[in-house]
Amino acid sequence: MPDTDTSAMQLTTDQASDAARSAARSAASSSVRRSSPTGTPFTRVLGIATLISMALLVLFGLFLSPEDVVQGESVRILYIHVGTVWVAYVAFGVTALASLAFLWKRTTSLTWDRIAGASAEVGVLFMALTLFAGAIWGRLSWGKFWVWDARVTTTAFLFITYIGYLAVRGLGGSHQQRGRRSAVVALLAVLEIPLVHFSVKLWRGLHQDGSVSDTTKVKLHDLMLFSLFISLIAFTLLFVWLVMHRQRVLAMQDALEDKGLDFALEQRRSEAGL
Amino acid sequence: METVVHLSNAVAVLGQFPVLAGASLTVERGEIVLLQGPNGAGKTSLLRLFAGLMPLARGEGNVLGFDLRTNREAVRKRVGLLGHANGLYSDLTVTENVRFWGATIGASESEVGAAMTRMGLAQRLKDVQVAKLSAGQKRRTALACLIARRAELWLLDEPHAGLDAAGRDELDATLREATAAGATIVVASHELERAGALATRLVEVVGGQVRESQVAPDGDNRSQAAG
Amino acid sequence: MFRIARLIAAKDLRIELRSRVVTNQVLPFAMIVMVMFAFALKTDEVVEKVAPGLVWLATLFSLLILVQRAFAIETADGATEAMRAAGVDPAGIFLGKALALAAQLAVLEILLLILAVVLYNSKLHAGGVVLLVTTLLAATIGLALVGTLYGGLAAGVRGRETLLPLLLLPVVAPVLIGATRATEAALGTSGAVVSDGWPWLGLLGVFVALFSVGGTLAFGPLIEE
Amino acid sequence: MSAAVVAMEDVGFILATYIATFVGSVALAAYYLRRGRRLAAQLPPEDKPWG
């Protein structure tokens, strides 16, 4: 995988060089592309762990694990598919919980709102990857990219629903308004998910029996189980790393807008000539 | 005297722009305060803030005893705002509009009728669709809706705009009656001659702040004459 | 809350009776959609089979337009802001607008069903009438509630014409599925029997319960500044 | 069609899945880092309490 290796290299250098961060800031525009202002020692360790586990995933997923008796080589896609779909659902769960925390008066804080937004954004990416991996796996196993299975269809609906959620976040207004509005939309979405899933299941159920659940009942080799396990670990680590960085980027964005307000206030006051 | 509005160092934001940049103002019961100042100075925002429509970004604010930071929704029931828009439904008639807005606070049929009579809408215009009215007639209808609401604090944004001479006289008389009955009024207007004669106090708004306030030249005796 | 809801529903329906936007514009739109479906599907047998689904799809497209219209009335001259300024209970606004929307949708659906009988050769029969009416009622209320909720959110923001379908269509999927199946059962499409339809009404019922409670609570925060 | 051809096609699909996943993740990570760097240049350290 030469492609991923070079990108991985860049990530490591980004995280590894911690030195001279203030100097980097002053000369940010020039050649200094090394230190990451959204990184901390913790995220650097996390990043390295992510890269290692991803490398292990490639090693086990593509080379060490055996091919499946029934599905042959295509089982290797599962190591991607299971990890990404897991992260996507966890991400939307985190969005819901953070939205709840934002709306609850005793814990309300814009940090929760930003975590909700960051998590949803990462979740949307992983949902796209899941749908892609799932389609390819379906093509190899059943000969077609798409099957109207309840789980698959619900996932596609979720994907669109959270794109809508991100659109609501981008509507503008004050940070508080953004937080309140998007938190309500996120909670409505969470209430809606089981209903969509249930209705799609009923809809398919009357015509044919579950398709995915049957074909996934493969007898799993120990190494395959281990690969799946690595997949879950690797993608969870990646998720945490991404959300932490995104949350910090969003915090800086909000802070910058507040700074802009201070500056605008100065300007506005000088209008009055006081 | 009882304080109706108290604002100190209020900052309010629209989008990312600070429409109010540290405004401080106190209004007592029974006053008619005229806000004046150039376009974009923050007059409209000041009125919307008093009406509990805008969140207070910084500073303190209190209207009719309600804290604007924590309880601005509670202010709304007791405040009447006439904004730039009239808030009328163009497919409904004048009477239907006034009746609808009156009904939102439970005004009786006779109060609705009185409000329409007050603004000279009870005769020829009462069954005309709002879409067919002139700008001035729409403004009269909006004022009638406001009168029917019997607010304690009246917030008027350019109420004279579009009104003819008769309409202005009716408006001014209405405002004096309202203050006599215990209401407080804050008006934003460019028409200093008109509104200045009515006001008990002039307040200049510039750059999102209240620059100074002064008692209107002959404001005191006017309010007493009305009372 | 219910007094305000009645007031607002009456106002919206009176405006509709005056302006006739639904009868003169939305209804013809829904009809042409029904005709276009037949063009796309070509053979009579296919059209007959999928007729219930087409009726509900046409209803969904019309719903998008009706919701836009319902909130265009409010935003045209700042009435939304005036309502907020007047301290009108948002739960009352929500229920009132949903009620008026439901009444308009119901008229539209009945006409579309009649059109399905004419164009798609759907057959009404006595045994299915109770199921059909109940389905119509539940689906209409559900669509009106959820349409009002997301319509209120989208009203007055930039890009509302495109945001509303993006938010609304994924959410109404259970109604499309449930109402279509129940209608198939009521009409006996492709040999379906009436008793098949009732379980789907449970789904519609849950949907209505969810959004009547959720919407009443959520509408205020969604429209507040 | 021989088994070898089928296997080749499979390998292409499998590699495409892995590559798409890694490229997607790295692109998002790179975007966050770049954006973070740009914003950090405009802000004093006290707005970055984690640093």
Give the helix/strand layout.
The complex is a heterotetramer of chains A (274), B (227), C (225) and D (51).
Chain A: H1 2-16, H2 21-26, H3 41-64, H4 75-103, H5 110-142, H6 150-169, H7 175-205, H8 212-215, H9 222-272
Helix pairs in contact in A: 1-3, 3-9, 4-5, 4-7, 4-9, 5-6, 5-7, 5-9, 6-7
Chain C: H1 2-19, H2 21-41, H3 44-75, H4 79-85, H5 90-119, H6 129-154, H7 160-171, H8 173-187, H9 198-223
Helix pairs in contact in C: 1-5, 2-3, 2-5, 3-5, 3-6, 3-8, 5-6, 5-9, 6-7, 6-8, 6-9, 8-9
Chain D: H1 3-40
Oligomerization status of the protein chains: heterotetramer
Rg for CA atoms of chain C: 18 Å
Q: Average pLDDT of chain C, to the nearest integer?
A: 92
Q: What is the helix/strand order of chain D?
A: H
Structural class of chain C: mainly alpha
Question: How is the main sheet of chain C built?
Answer: none
Radius of gyration of chain D, in angstroms, nearest whole number: 21 Å
Percentage of residues in helical conformation of chain D? over 70%
Major sheet attributes of chain D: none
Shape label of chain C? globular
- Termini distance of chain D? 60 Å
Number of strands of chain D: 0
Order of helices and strands of chain C: HHHHHHHHH
Instruction: Decide which structural class fits the backbone of chain D.
Output: mainly alpha
Number of helices of chain D: 1
| Percentage of residues in strands of chain C | under 5%
Morphology call of chain D? rod-shaped
From the N-terminal CA to the C-terminal CA of chain C, the straight-line distance is: 21 Å
Overview of the molecule:
The complex is a heterotetramer of chains A (274), B (227), C (225) and D (51). Chain A is mainly alpha-helical. With 227 residues, chain B is α/β, with parallel strands linked by helices. Chain B contains eight helices and ten strands. In chain B, the strands form two sheets. A six-stranded mixed beta sheet of chain B has the order 6-7-8-3-9-10, sandwiched between helices. In chain B, strands 2-1-4-5 form a four-stranded antiparallel beta sheet. Chain C is an all-alpha fold and 225 residues long. In chain C, 83% of the residues lie in helices and 0% in strands. Chain C is built from nine helices and no strands. Classes of the chains: A mainly alpha (274), B alpha/beta (227), C mainly alpha (225), D mainly alpha (51). The interface between A and D is large, with 53 and 35 residues.
Labels describing this entry:
heterotetramer, A: 274 residues, mainly alpha, globular, D: 51 residues
